[in-house]
Request: fold
Amino acid sequence: MASNAPAGRFPWAFSVLLVVALFLYAVMAQSAGTSRSSDAAGNGMAQAFGIVFAVLLWFVLAVLLLIARRHGAIPGWAMACLAVLVPFSLLGVALSIALWSERGGWLIWLVFAAPMLLTVYAVWARFAALNRVLPANAANGLIVAVLAVATVAPFI
Reply:
């Protein structure tokens, strides 16, 4: 899709939301990452804060993806897949925070990687210059496939 904004116009809304997303990501990651370092009550609080900030982060990521769709290179089929996978990936991340808090293991990587993947994809889709670095078909197929695997992984 071609950008509807005039050339040379700075994407203020997208940029501000990107900064908010990175802040929420940092707080979510810190809370989730420390959910095994205290007593039961402290770990529960860290887990709860991690999940609350994950929900807020996913809301911002959804808005970033909608802006990117309007201005970028996300086709209808990929947006339809994202409309299903983004909410389910939030469930996967929340479950990963809870499971990692209880058992440890590799699921903490999903908590760190899934929001970064969505953020990088939104940035790629929003800015046409980045579309030349990675072709649209490859990027759209890759995000859908990786997000689908990341969504299912905690349930296995």
Summary: The first helix runs from residue 12 to 33. The chain has six helices and no strands. The helical segments are 12-33, 40-71, 76-103, 108-126, 128-131, 136-152.
